[in-house]
Amino acid sequence: MLKTLFTSHKRGFLSLATRTRSGTWRSGFQTIAETWRSGFQVDRSQQNTKQQAGQLNGSPLGSMVSSLVGPREPAPPPQPVMGFFTDTSLCIGCKACEVACKQWNQLPAKEPFWTGSSYDNTGHLSAIAWRHVQFIEEIGQTRPALPLIDIQAAKSNGTIPMTPPGTALPFFNTDRWLMRSDVCKHCAHAPCHEACPTGAIIRTEFDTVYVQQDICNGCGYCVVACPFGVIARDEQETHTARKCTLCYDRMKDGLEPACAKSCPTDSIQYGEVEELKQHARERLGLLHERGLNEARLYGVDDNILDGGLHAFFLLLDEPEVYNLPSNPPRPSNNVVPASLWSIAAALLLSLFGFLFLKK
Predict the structure, then answer these.
(1) What is the pLDDT of residues 226-250, one digit of tens each?
(2) How many domains does the chain have?
(3) Same domain, 297 and 183
(4) Is 0.90 topped by the overall pTM?
């Protein structure tokens, strides 16, 4: 519409200039006035048509929204809350979940590099690595609760040979690797969701956290809000925030996420969150019965982020060993106190300024 009016105005001014040379001023202005009048008549007719459609579809507000964004599709019906349970005691570090995630989501690979301190060449989660098998290599460290038996006493009484065979189990020595397949936690109260200013981050009908790529403007507020360092901005291609979608496209078709489907040991388990939590507690009890008292659950209860996580873990050591915060902060909890302090500071400065100017 604006383009049509601009073109028409341009023609009117050209006509005005032509007619001015011939001495006929009024004819040129009449051309411009007629152009504006016809343009507004077309705009009013279109507005009346949209209002009539809005009256048929619903309220005037609905008419305005419909005229801006088009007809709105009905929301999908609610589904059971779905999530992940990752049992690190079963993880063998094969990285099959990483490969499956990249293949299904068509994520580009990066050049492998040798860190010099770990066999893990992925490093961390990123915009192109939505699954990361973390290696915690504890070599040459003595843990007080592990091994499960006294090595020296077992060697002295013949239970363990002085020179263990090549098939000796890992708990026959003090060295161990902890492995964990890290992923987005899909928090019940996700800080990234709360920080997003454009509404690009939404909760799906499965109560998972999803980033709409066509709405994200790449501001990065979600990146700094996430206490787990999960979400990242793609600086190479899209320049938008990207993270695990919990294979939302597969979930809508009733399929298991690619990472859980490819896990050979069922370390990654997918299902309804409440059922997974019950299974996690049973698994923890079993490990405690077998003497692994350091095992613990992370994200199952509601203490973390005021609601818990929908992708939670069974850990074999303290959360900090796995680079997980024991009490991750929720930035939205600081909004009200910070606002009150800002108001108080503004009032105090105003009072000082008033007293200073009064003198």
Answers:
(1) 999 999 999 989 999 999 999 999 9
(2) 2
(3) yes
(4) no
